[in-house]
Design goal:
alpha+beta; four-stranded antiparallel β-sheet; about 25% helix
Length: about 130
Amino acid sequence: MHNIIFGILFLSNLLLSPVIFAEENEEEQLQIEKSLIDQFSACWVMPAGVMLEKGMTMKVSAEYNEDGTLKPESVTLLETNIAESNTFYKPIVESTLYSMCKKIDLPLEEYSYWEKVIINFDFSNIN
């Protein structure tokens, strides 16, 4: 099993800044984050034959429809510390972008929190 550390950053619809949850919604936020991390962990597939190195990271943004389906055109690589000269750069990037969950299952009433997300992939803990 491959372990990847996922970080989830929620974006507001208008400001593209982290959503500030009211204090009473903190537990709700944690539940949404955990659910997203679990779902993205299940969707990510390690590319065959690729050598991932400790410290490799990628930041990917994605948008979802209200029914939880991915807006494919929205998936964007924001940044990575993997050099383009790395033999495995293209397969790692393509695989990670392709592995974005095609559908996520989260409460519709919280849609404004998970409509747009940024996922930080940290490959430091690869077994």
